[in-house]
Amino acid sequence: MSLIKKEHGGRVPKNRSIDGFRPNNPLIGQPVRGIGQRNLSDFSDSGDSPQQKANLESVFEVPNATETKIDKPEQPQKERKRRIRKVLKIGGMLFATLLVLGVLTGGYLFVKGWIASKKIFKGGGSSSTLYSTDIAPEKLKGEGDGRINILLLGNSGGDHPGADLTDSIVVASIDPVAKDIALLSIPRDLWVSVPGYWSMKINAAYVSGMQSALDDGKNEADAQEAGFATLEETIQQYLGIPIHYHALVNFEAFREGVDAIGGVDVNVEEDLYDTFIMADNDNNPLIAKAGLQHFDGRHALLYAQSRHSTSDFDRGKRQRLVLIAIKEKILTIGTFSNPNTVSKLIDALGNNVSVNATLGEIMRMYEITKDIPSSSIATIGLTDETNPLVTTGNVNGQSIVQPRAGLTDFSDIQSFVRNALRDPFLKSENASIAVLNGSGVDNLATQKANELKSYGYNVTIIDSAPTSDYQKTLIFDNTNGAKKFTKNYLEKRLGATVSTDPIPEGIVAQADFVVVLGADANSQNTSN
Q1: With b meaning 16 or more CB within 10 Å and e meaning fewer, what string describes 145-169?
Q2: Domain hosting residue 204, numbered range
Q3: pLDDT tens-digit readout, 282-291
Q4: In this structure, are 130 and 197 located in the same domain?
Q5: How many other C-beta atoms lie within 10 A of the C-beta of residue 285?
Q6: Which of 158, 195, 395, 469 has an alpha carbon 20 to 30 Å from 352's alpha carbon atom?
Q7: Same-domain pairing of 378 and 518
Q8: Are 314 and 348 in contact (CB under 8 A)?
């Protein structure tokens, strides 16, 4: 597939549309192809030499006939293709596969068997606080880096249009100090400008980066990582939080995984109807009745997928309910002490999941989170009734989700997300901060105080300094270095070093840290 360059340096797949968005040219047609959709049968009549075909086999890591049923003659061609696709397919709506199954539930046997037989843990992720919170503050890049944030994606898989769009996007965030977990759902239709590309729904960011890498001659594994990098950069820019690890699982793995544990019990809040997916529900538009329901894999997936009769926002809430239900089921049945169940899970998930974490990192996540009850897992959306941050909109005739503050104004969303996922060191130190304006620029103290608050700082005083002739910003530490993480974060945020001089005469501020803003603070670019 060829690509054409956009004037601003981005890329648009030729004869493609991304999630219904059409660029200025009427570039529509085939679905964007991605990882897991190419297979050896695509080349069977292409005239490739035996060596070329052997190279293709090495790229796609086709299993041996002795290890899988893929090559048995009685197996239908469609099934063979499906199994080849599964070898390199990675996805992530199945939070259960990484954290709920392998981390939150004490899945040592499962993880050990999985890594031994499938080799899916690739490594490459990084968190400074995963193994110890007793670290030097200088090792943290900035506010929020003390948490462990895992990007979990899900796509439908297959050959249909939009198969590689990440229609489920969840950030699982672990606080290693307080030992708590939060699940943040990101609406798939959130309208963003993807760095290096163009404006689109956020569920197209991954496949845009992936497809661009494929068209540049990258192999499948590198293209996957390029897709992750594109989406991670987008999330970091628009939500203001770092991403340390990622995973992607297709929906088939979700269904098979739920079946492997004997289904899950979910308390359905109200009757759920959806005519759009009723064909997958025996032509019944009633997806789930209100009350406590037992779902097998198919019905759990339908319940988690449905959005056409409600909204993306409600779907995100349902997905979080299902994930927590999976965790509860696994804990109650003693999954990982049952070799038969473990075997079923490995069969269902082993060829469908790949993560950029090592086995040691996965087990460390388990150690941090193993005692956290489901009732303590925070579920976070951007549409809380008391503080809705997003709304629906329309761009070029397609329905989107956008900030209530405006199409490109993500400041309220960033503040909400960063405070909901507050840096554990800022939270544990909870240092009081006074912000005084010594710059002579009107309202600068308020602006900087709001910026600090958006990152989770405890700003208690906003005032003017005795004089307004300060050229450089000064920071004074009244804790004598006791709150070292806040000190380090403030220095990085404000581009200043804590002063060793006494607080200037006339400044009276009862706070752990006193910030006197100079003229340099007005010209400083705010980093989000």
Answers
A1: bbbbbbbbbbbbbbeeebbbbbbbb
A2: 89-420
A3: 888 899 999 9
A4: yes
A5: 13
A6: 195
A7: no
A8: no
